[in-house]
Each structure stands twice: as structure tokens, then as C-alpha cells.
Amino acid sequence: MVVPAYPFKSPNRESKVLGPDPDVGERMSLQHLNSIGARIQQIYPPGGHVTIVSDGLCYKDLLGVSDEEVFGYAKGLHLITEGLGLKHLKFMDLFKLIRIPSHRCDLRILSAARVEARSKFDQNRFLSPSSTEAEQKVREAKEVARILRQNVVQGEEVTGSNSNDQRFRA
Fold first, then answer.
1. Distance (Å, whole) CA 74 – CA 69
2. Do 73 and 6 contact (CB within 8 A), yes or no?
3. Cα 77 to Cα 101: distance, rounded to the nearest angstrom
4. Cα angle at 93 between 92 and 95, to 5 degrees?
5. Dihedral over Cα of 19, 60, 75, 3: its sign
């Protein structure tokens, strides 16, 4: 089962929430979702899993939520899940789901890429879907996505190293 949920904590700190981190409400709802998988396992031995997909990065700008806050919230959910041993829950990164490479450590590049992509879509939003120009824009977007998937190499600092060691992955 796939559940689109947990984008980020409400930004309304005055009357809804106390802060940006997951709290008792998230803990209880994660336990409830986990119990669904556990109940499935009672009648189907391999069990069931609830896969949580967050789309917070897609619309966080509308509510003034930062990338750091979205990623911090997700990390908090993972810590709760691991800490409570909720083995029937899985998390899926939305960018992996739609096959866009992402690297959580490089928030500036991720944010700039999202803004640029959104800008391009907004520029062409009034094209007729059946128009030649719209079809060309879709082909261009698919080609850019293909190039990014095949050619983007991202570096990651190796922690605990005194030198400028990097790990690279495509």
C-alpha cells in the first residue's frame, strides 16, 4: 500500500504546532500505519508494508517551508520508525519514484533545479496539450531527464577524513 503523507509539519506555529519536528501525533499515526501491515501478516505470512511517499518538496514553497525543514522532518520520521521498530513501514523518496536523481546533502542545487523546472513548466502552461509546440516541449523535457539520469555525477564528502576525499556516484 502506498500512502502520500507527511510532507512537513504545518508552518502555522502560532495555533497548530509547536515546531517543525515530528511529535506524538506522527508517532501515533506511524504506529497505526505499521499495525495495518502487522494485521495483514496475521492472514498473509509475508505481511504487508505501507510505503510512505512525501510530496513536501513539490509544494513547500507555497507555504514558505524550507528544504532543510522538509528534510529534517523526514529524518525525524525515519528516526521514530527505526526507534520503535516499525518494520511494516517503508519510505520512498518522491524524486526516486519519478526517477529524478537527488542528493539530500546538496540542497542548493536541488532547490535551484526545482525552481528552474517549475519556471519552465509555468512558461508553457497555456499551450494546448495537442499542439506541436507542447509535444516538442515534452520531448525536450524527457531528453533533459534522460541526460540527467545518465550523466549526473554527485560528490559526497567522506566523513572522518582529514583530506579532501570524495565519494562519487552517478
1. 9
2. yes
3. 22
4. 135
5. positive
pTM above threshold 0.70 = no
Backbone angles phi, psi at 92, to 5 degrees: -125, 130
| pLDDT tens figures, 73-121 | 999 999 999 999 999 999 887 666 665 555 444 556 666 666 777 777 7
Quote the radius of gyration of the chain (alpha carbons, Å): 19
Q: Where are the domains of the chain?
A: 1-98, 103-170
DSSP string, 129-142: TTSHHHHHHHHHHH
129, amino acid identity? P
Check if the beta carbon of residue 92 is closer than 8 Å to that of residue 55: no
Burial 142-152 (b: 16+ CB within 10 A, else e): eeeeeeeeeee
**C-alpha distances in Å from residue 120, one per residue of 41, 48, 102, 133, 138:** 46, 40, 19, 13, 11
